[in-house]
Amino acid sequence: MRFDEYAFFDSIDAMNAAHMRTPSLPPVSRLVPTMTSLQSKTSGLDVPQILSAAIFDVDGVLLASPHERAWREALGGFAEPALFTTKMYQSQVAGKPRLSGALSALQALGVPNAEKQASAYAQRKQERLEELIDAGAVSAFPDAIRFVKAIMALGWPIAVASSSKNANGMMTRVALDEQHTLLDAFDANVCGRDLREGKPNPEIFLLAAGELPAAPAHCFVVEDAPAGVEAARAGGMVALGVARLGDAASLWRAGATLVVTSLDEVSIDKLSRGQLDRVSI
């Protein structure tokens, strides 16, 4: 794009906020074209990608997990917990392996000797997370469950890919139906694998695609974090951004092909034809 896309997408969020106060008006995001026509430019392909498989991140996409809360509450003694905002979580921690996230957060907060303290912070966060999970502080996003079931109904192979080593345990706590948990929905699972590099490196998504009967170019990745979107695009995949926190602009900037606030906005009819697009209004 030759225009100032940063200012453009920031203005979209501001306009959406104004539209929220006027229910009769559609969200401005619906007026922004999907990037189907730009896929060849951003992915390096000469033709639009025909999709046939899906890869899901977990935290923030499928589950409302207590990760952010655990990171914040574990900060006591390292920095002021109130400084750990949702924006900081999304930009510095989300999608990264535990130790990398801890180091990134401490550095962003200006904590002295962050490298030496990151391991202790990461361990404290893990202990707090386990306490919150045991207390039942995990739930699934209803739109995500509907979307997963819709993809399954298409007969498409599905993978789940999270850097969190807690992802599988959390998904077993969510019922997909009377006989299956959310974890049972996936044909491939690379959650918590030891990786050489975390997101935005595409390693985790390429690993997931390698366990599906589909080439990376035919996969779309569902992500809520800019680092995850960047990782998907770096792997030659289409990226579907889920802006549950009013952060659509950052997902567009990261290179998302389409950004929605709910997965109910994705057209299953068009997806059945290999196209990622919004439901027509």
Automatic annotation (TrEMBL):
<dbReference type="Pfam" id="PF00702">
    <property type="entry name" value="Hydrolase"/>
</dbReference>
<dbReference type="InterPro" id="IPR023198">
    <property type="entry name" value="PGP-like_dom2"/>
</dbReference>
<dbReference type="InterPro" id="IPR006439">
    <property type="entry name" value="HAD-SF_hydro_IA"/>
</dbReference>
<dbReference type="InterPro" id="IPR023214">
    <property type="entry name" value="HAD_sf"/>
</dbReference>
<protein>
    <submittedName>
        <fullName>Beta-phosphoglucomutase</fullName>
    </submittedName>
</protein>
<dbReference type="InterPro" id="IPR036412">
    <property type="entry name" value="HAD-like_sf"/>
</dbReference>
